Amino acid sequence: MALRRALVCPLDEGKYLAPLSTLGVGGRCECFAEPWVLADVATLFRIRALEGFPIYILGGGTNVVFADGEIEGTVLSTRRLNACRWNVGETHGELDAEAGYSLPLASAVAGREGLGGAEFAQGIPGTLGGAVAGNAGAGGKSAGELLHEVTTVEENGEIRRWRRGEFSYSYRFFSLSSSPRFIAACKLSFERKPLEDIWRDEAAFRQVRMGQPRGVRSAGCTFKNPPGDSAGRLLDACGCKGLSVGSAVVSGAHANFLVNKGGATGSDVFRLMGICRDIVFEKTGICLEPEIKFMGFPK
Ligand SMILES: Cc1cc2nc3c(=O)[nH]c(=O)nc-3n(C[C@H](O)[C@H](O)[C@H](O)COP(=O)(O)OP(=O)(O)OC[C@H]3O[C@@H](n4cnc5c(N)ncnc54)[C@H](O)[C@@H]3O)c2cc1C
């Protein structure tokens, strides 16, 4: 295959995807690439532009549900693109990191160095690339606020640099994610902050997590919060807690968490989300929008 010859990294066939996501559902993919050089990503995108096969970008797999069966196309993992450089100064600090660098690690290192701004990321698993792509956040703070510069691989394989002002973000939205492109690296800026204040804020964010299910297979919040309300509150008020399809269950601890009790499939998750969305819509007129990303499902 031309693609295999063009890449430095191996191209696996039929890779089982469920273990690559925190939810733990889904089948296999036609091809799987885990490059360690950006040139491979550019090559993949260039060949895709000619041949038209789908590419699914996978970070930490903490916010995705894979389809069952075989997913056509290539799953492109960022796990090995994880180099980073910290630059800690008197008044502020900077992190220059590739997409696969861990978000919780970035938060922990910043906190340890007395750099404020990433305390919200305590307890948000996954990679920097995934956090930027979906503008992950908590308590009104989000990844976009720290972003200084983003490097992308464009749909045609070109590498492009975007400075602050050339992209925008809002609740679980990042403007550069509106078109298919690969977030290759980003620069984050942090302000110096007293350690006691960082510890206090980190503890406050950790406290909020206590109400969420722990030690279970989930993909975080299932639905986005609608304007002025909370998806969890609506799902709870509409009696969704405990609903299930197969082994996919709406958590009793937090109605906006869908849990794989063991052996759930992608279609169990998909159907359960549809049931919850319909119940909330019938009872409140509010149509919840998924926060979880579907990979390999029919459009
Ligand atoms: C227990 C738990 C708690 C969570 N709490 C929160 C929370 O408080 N707040 C919150 O916002 N989220 C939360 N999440 C969801 C998830 O952790 C975040 O959305 C996270 O930022 C996703 O990063 P990831 O690397 O795992 O991305 P993935 O799940 O691998 O991918 C998510 C999406 O981003 C895209 N993507 C990933 N990397 C790139 C890239 N380099 N370029 C382009 N697109 C890319 C993927 O294609 C996919 O569409 C939680 C999840 C869990 C399991």
Describe it:
It contains seven helices and 20 strands. 25% of the residues lie in helices and 30% in strands. The chain folds into three domains: 2-77, Uridine Diphospho-n-acetylenolpyruvylglucosamine Reductase, domain 2 (2-Layer Sandwich); 84-209, Uridine Diphospho-n-acetylenolpyruvylglucosamine Reductase, domain 3, CATH 3.30.465; 217-295, UDP-N-acetylenolpyruvoylglucosamine reductase, C-terminal domain (Uridine Diphospho-n-acetylenolpyruvylglucosamine Reductase, domain 1). By secondary structure, it is an alpha+beta fold. The mean pLDDT is 96. Bound molecules: flavin-adenine dinucleotide. Residues 22, 57-64, 78, 99, 124-127, 129-131, 133-134, 136-138, 182-183, 218-220, 293 line the site of flavin-adenine dinucleotide (FAD).
**Unreliable stretches:** none
Global Rg: 19 Å
Round the mean pLDDT to the nearest integer and report it: 96
Protein structure class: alpha+beta
Keywords, please?
alpha+beta, Uridine Diphospho-n-acetylenolpyruvylglucosamine Reductase, domain 2, Uridine Diphospho-n-acetylenolpyruvylglucosamine Reductase, domain 3, 3 domains, 6-stranded antiparallel beta sheet, binds flavin-adenine dinucleotide
Layout of strands and helices, then pairs:
Blueprint: H1 2-6, E1 11-16, E2 28-33, H2 38-51, E3 55-58, E4 64-66, E5 70-77, E6 84-88, E7 92-98, H3 103-112, E8 115-116, H4 128-133, E9 137-138, E10 141-142, E11 147-153, E12 159-163, E13 169-170, E14 173-174, E15 182-192, H5 195-209, E16 217-221, H6 231-237, E17 244-245, E18 248-250, E19 257-260, H7 266-284, E20 293-295
The structure holds flavin-adenine dinucleotide (FAD).
